[in-house]
Design goal:
This protein has about 425 residues and is α/β, with parallel strands linked by helices. It contains 18 helices and 14 strands. A six-stranded parallel beta sheet has the order 5-2-1-6-7-8, with helices on both faces. It has a three-stranded antiparallel beta sheet with strand order 9-10-11, covered by helices on one side.
Length: about 425
């Protein structure tokens, strides 16, 4: 394995693995994006003409979602009509030449297309068959449609989020989809490790509600062992104090986490409340929880008299965990984010666009963005010719199963057109 002048290994961790992505929108595609970032060859199969619906979601530039340029990075996008028998046969051929399949259709759909796991046991016994759905492949709810919003609710996640006595709050992100995608990528890597040890292929069954259920900390044992149901706690966390959001004189909010015993003393000293720093009632977390309102009132009074930057500067001097609440503009201009390389610049149609880098950060085999989310069908020619062995005339005959675009035979190299500019 060769190294470059920086000591980095030229091959990425997942180089040499081929992934077929049949998912749309977010959960399956996010998993595929993670794998592609770290070297896997991800072939994304989209429906003809329209492509993945996410191409048209939220903020658009020249008719294409800016989000797509991030989520579609490093993927080889092709179009195949899964409603056609010949289209499904083409997909089967690609799966048989691949290491991993990611699909997020409703359970039973792939079986009805004769593309379920059983159909590959003999032809591709080493296949890692990854399935992402709302409720999993088995159980009484498995047949139900399951968007992230619904699955976050049944998982228990939504119940603990919000203001007591008010409707549960949804964060303005599709967390259920992204968390499911993370679990899927984790399951795929575990399965590939198992395969290398002689375990062969297997099915990775990811349910959105279970991925969110996996984040619930002590909610279940607290109920089973003590019949305590964790309730929503607004901007705090139940049973830990002080940890809250405070508004400053410039109307900006900051977060302060002073819930360690020694940290609490430093915090209250910084806030000019030495009386509370030395108060025996507040020397342990249990005592601080009992008197949480008193502590929060003291911190609120202190914060509202000074601007946020001054409060944070003071807390830094006293080594108290604290920080601002950032929006996108704040992050893009923050020197720490910049130095850590959290933004990558890609060129899309001769325009530069910042997209987020992806973690984890690996010292010898880091991931990277090679090209932004490409145009629909950009890799049809490459995949159909190089992997399926189809010449141009065969592709023309199969025009109902695949879509030809002006780019298909133009010789344009998408990796050159949407290329990474810099970190």
């Amino acid at each position: 394995m060769s190294k470059n002048k920086s000591g980095l290994i030229n091959n990425k961790p997942l180089s040499g693995f081929r992934v077929i992505e049949l998912g749309q929108l977010l959960a399956g595609p996010f998993s595929g994006t993670l794998l592609a970032y770290f070297g896997a060859e991800v072939i994304k199969i989209e429906p003809p003409n329209t492509g993945d619906p996410l191409r048209n979601w939220r903020v658009l530039d020249d008719g294409t979602s800016l989000w797509w340029r991030s989520l579609g990075r490093n993927k080889k996008c092709i179009t195949i009509n899964l409603k056609k028998q010949k289209g499904r046969e083409l997909v089967k051929q690609l799966i048989n030449k691949s290491d991993v399949l990611i699909e997020n259709f409703r359970p039973g759909k792939m079986e009805r297309w004769n593309l379920g796991p059983e159909h590959f046991k003999e032809s591709n016994p080493n296949l890692i068959y990854t399935r992402i759905s709302g409720y999993g492949q088995t159980g009484p709810y498995s047949h139900k449609p399951g968007f992230a919003s619904v699955c976050e609710g049944i998982s228990g996640f939504r119940y603990v989020n919000g203001i007591p006595g008010q409707a549960p709050i949804r964060p303005n992100l599709s967390i259920g989809d992204s968390v499911a995608g993370l679990h899927a990528a984790f399951g795929i890597v575990l399965s590939l490790l198992s395969r290398q040890s002689g375990g062969g292929g297997q099915v990775v069954d990811i349910a959105l509600y279970e991925a969110m259920f996996n984040l619930l900390e002590g909610v279940i044992p607290e109920y089973d062992g003590a019949r305590v149901i964790r309730e929503p706690s607004g901007t705090t966390v139940t049973g830990i104090a002080p940890t809250n959001i405070y508004r400053c004189a410039d109307k900006k909010y900051i977060v302060i986490g002073g819930n360690g015993d020694s940290i609490f003393k430093r915090l209250m000293t910084a806030a000019n409340r030495p009386d509370l720093a030395e108060d025996a009632r507040l020397s342990s977390n249990s005592g601080r929880v009992k008197h949480e309102e008193e502590i929060d009132e003291a911190l609120s009074c202190w914060c509202k008299k000074q601007i946020s930057s001054k409060i944070l500067e003071t807390l830094d001097l006293f080594d108290v965990p604290s920080g601002p609440i950032y929006n996108a503009e704040d992050m893009i201009n923050d020197p720490h984010f910049i130095e850590r390389g959290l933004f990558e610049n890609v060129k899309v149609k001769n325009k530069s666009l910042k997209i987020p880098a992806m973690v984890p950060r690996l010292s010898k085999t880091p991931g990277s963005t090679l090209w932004a989310g490409p145009e629909i069908a950009s890799f049809n020619k490459e995949i159909f010719e190089n992997i399926l062995g189809m010449d141009a005339s065969t592709q023309t005959i199969l025009k109902d199963e695949i879509v030809r675009t002006s780019k298909l035979y133009s010789g344009i190299n998408v990796q050159q057109e949407n290329i990474l500019v810099s970190n």
